[in-house]
């Protein structure tokens, strides 16, 4: 095996995780290295075996003549697929060991498709089964039977790399979709909002934040980080971001750990119009799965506010950011006014166990664990944000 050629192949395999169009390069290179006619990667429905996507490399003339028929019909009856799917992923089958001349003479796949298109021998494996689809890989040749001694050493060596590249590609597709969903949610908020990592790196900023930061000079995005114009405010902002992202809310019920997250607020003065600009720094809420959406383990939302408001807007944030129910919001309002659970029960005509159940729901949804932490979070939320307020 030529080491330089093998290293180039590995680079192409992992490049394909980013762009499926690159699989043609991988397949062309593999067809050349194995001296076969066609190398083939295809995705099929696990139940029906219908081919959903297909990529080929090798002899272009043969590919153009046979590829579409394989997708339309013959892929679903390819015996390599049924055989390899019965084995654990990564196990290669050599067709001559499973399909003898008697089988070939009676097979629609061989007689109506493979042989008329100039092929006779094949090998294949199932690489991955995920989300009700199978991802398979195969080689076809017109003259040579594939050999355990000649071909399998290379195929066995590249199989884990093929599988890993496909897994990475699936994860990248998933993250791309999640980031789009996360950005769509942030963009629905009327408040200027920036999503930051625990280091202050800007992951996403919505339209309102982009408009604000484009004209504001006391705070800006510089080298992908949110920075203040002066050292004092920069130190304060960095401390707030670290405090609000000090815990990974991977499980909302990790209350002993979640209590370490500290939402906070700071005020800086606009260099543009002299008005106070209030920044609320809060842990990324889990009610929308935003941390997962933006592929960050620890993160914060920085919300900007230059007005004064009242609890009605805090109610808006509890509802929109944390998916709190009306009953939970009513209890949160009274808690913010300083009432105890017993007093809240009397004010709302609720039994104490019911109040405590609502409080537990509030803790879980907001990632807090104590009443004081919940009050601190609500006090950190912007007092404006409703369109027209």
Describe the structure.
By secondary structure, this protein is an alpha+beta fold. It has two domains: about 5-175, GAF domain (Beta-Lactamase); about 190-380, Winged helix-like DNA-binding domain superfamily/Winged helix DNA-binding domain (Arc Repressor Mutant, subunit A), CATH 1.10.10.10. Helices cover about 45% and strands about 20% of the residues. It has 17 helices and twelve strands. The protein has helices at about 5-15, 25-35, 60-70, 80-85, 95-100, 100-105, 110-115, 150-190, 205-215, 230-245, 255-260, 290-295, 310-320, 325-335, 340-350, 350-365, 370-380; strands at about 40-45, 50-60, 95, 120-130, 135-140, 195, 200-205, 220, 225-230, 265-270, 275-285, 300-305. The strands form three sheets. Strands 2-1-5-4-3 form a five-stranded antiparallel beta sheet, with helices on both faces. It has a five-stranded antiparallel beta sheet with strand order 7-6-12-11-10, with helices on both faces. Helix 1 (about 5-15) runs parallel beside helix 8 and helix 15 (about 340-350) packs across helix 16 (about 350-365). Residues about 245-260, about 285-295 and about 385-389 have low confidence and may be disordered.
**CATH level-1 class of the largest domain:** Mainly Alpha
| Helix-strand sequence | HHEEHHEHHHEEHEEHEEHHEEHEHHHHH
Total of DSSP H or I helical runs spanning 4+ residues: 17
Main β-sheet, in a few words?
A: 5 strands, antiparallel
Radius of gyration: 30 Å
Number of strands: 12
Number of domains: 2
Describe the strand arrangement of the main beta sheet, using strand numbers.
2-1-5-4-3
């Amino acid at each position: 095996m030529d080491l330089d050629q093998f290293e180039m192949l590995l680079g192409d395999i992992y490049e394909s995780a980013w762009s499926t169009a690159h699989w043609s390069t991988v397949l062309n290179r593999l067809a050349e290295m194995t001296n076969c006619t066609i190398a083939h990667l295809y995705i099929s429905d696990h139940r029906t075996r219908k081919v959903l996507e297909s990529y080929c490399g090798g002899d272009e003339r043969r590919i153009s003549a046979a590829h579409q028929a394989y997708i339309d019909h013959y892929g679903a009856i390819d015996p390599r697929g049924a055989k390899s799917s019965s084995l654990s992923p990564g196990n290669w089958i050599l067709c001559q060991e499973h399909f003898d001349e008697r089988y070939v003479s009676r097979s629609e796949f061989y007689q109506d498709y493979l042989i008329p298109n100039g092929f006779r021998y094949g090998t294949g494996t199932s690489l991955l089964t995920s989300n009700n689809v199978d991802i398979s890989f195969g080689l076809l040749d017109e003259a040579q039977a594939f050999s355990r001694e000649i071909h399998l050493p290379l195929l066995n060596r590249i199989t884990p790399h093929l599988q890993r590249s496909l897994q990475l590609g699936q994860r990248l597709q998933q993250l791309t979709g999640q980031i789009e969903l996360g950005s769509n949610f942030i963009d629905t908020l009327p408040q200027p909002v920036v999503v930051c990592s625990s280091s202050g790196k800007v992951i996403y900023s919505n339209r309102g934040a982009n408009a604000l930061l484009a004209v504001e000079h006391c705070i800006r995005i510089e080298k992908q980080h949110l920075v203040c114009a002066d050292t004092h405010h920069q130190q304060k902002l960095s401390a707030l971001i670290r405090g609000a992202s000090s815990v990974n809310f991977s499980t909302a019920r990790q209350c002993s750990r979640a209590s370490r997250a500290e939402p906070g607020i700071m005020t800086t003065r606009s260099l543009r119009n002299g008005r106070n600009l209030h920044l609320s720094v809060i842990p990324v809420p889990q009610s929308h799965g935003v941390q997962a959406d933006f592929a960050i383990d620890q993160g914060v939302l920085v919300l900007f506010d230059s007005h004064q408001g009242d609890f009605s807007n805090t109610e808006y944030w509890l509802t929109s950011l944390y998916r709190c129910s009306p009953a939970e919001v009513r209890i949160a309002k009274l808690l913010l006014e300083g009432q105890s659970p017993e007093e809240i029960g009397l004010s709302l005509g609720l039994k104490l166990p019911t109040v405590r159940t609502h409080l537990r729901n509030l803790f879980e949804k907001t990632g807090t664990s104590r009443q004081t932490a919940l009050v601190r979070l609500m006090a950190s939320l912007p007092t404006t944000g409703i369109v027209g307020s």
